[in-house]
Amino acid sequence: MKKGLAFIILLLFLFPTMASAHTKLVSSNPSNGQVVTEPINQITIEFEEALEKLGTVKLYKTGAAATVANVSVKGNKLIADLPNSLENGDYKIEWKVISEDGHPVTGQIPFKVQLKQVENKATTENKTTDKAVKDKATEKQHKEATPKKEKSKYLIPLVAIGVFGIALMVGGVLLWNRK
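The chain above was modelled as a monomer; its predicted structure follows.
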């Protein structure tokens, strides 16, 4: 009886991480580190699971707030309209959603806008070769610099709590069996 009770309590400590899983980012448009070369009028962020209707999107251009409108949640997507075409520059999207299990999840997506400028034909032809070489170099750097899947910032504390819980349970079982 005592061993069965100890086993059940031990199982409860081993599996709490399953109940505290948070939804994860699946994709976004624009994506992390993307160089946008065509005008965009909407930001779309997709998650693994459905979201609560509460979600926010903030857009920053080189630290200054930019305008977004009509932020909405549709199933597992967070969508924000951009009232104007974005100007060239570095941008950062800050998003916050609440997964269906009630946990808030936040993140950032940096990207760059480099819209093509209207140029005369002679200048364009000369720059095309240089641009192709630079694009290949930039693409290679981007592939090397793009981080692999971001590990959850909660993983280490959860593992530590789990190990502490197991140690506590084993100590309790040993102490209980000594009597």
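The first strand starts at residue 25 and ends at 29.
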